[in-house]
Specification:
This protein is an all-alpha fold and about 80 residues long. The chain has a domain of about 50 residues. It contains four helices and no strands. Keywords: Lipoprotein, Myristate, Palmitate. One of its GO terms (cellular component) is lysosomal membrane.
Length: about 80
Amino acid sequence: MGACLSCCGQSAEETNLMPSPEERRQQQLDAAEKRRQENEQRGIKNPESVRRQQQRAEELQRREEEAARQGQGQSNLRWQTS
């Protein structure tokens, strides 16, 4: 009997195997976001310290650019010969 019913129409089991296109799209977006976050933190044990180091580097670069603008390209280093 079960063999006859399986060919006549879709059972409830078969319809639940594939999620709707909207659900599938959302699952793919969630998976992509999860992969992106994992890739960002791969190899970094302390992401907060990396952010602090990047901020320090940006601050140092900004200060150097500001000093270069104020000094009009003149360096403070002087040669001494004896």
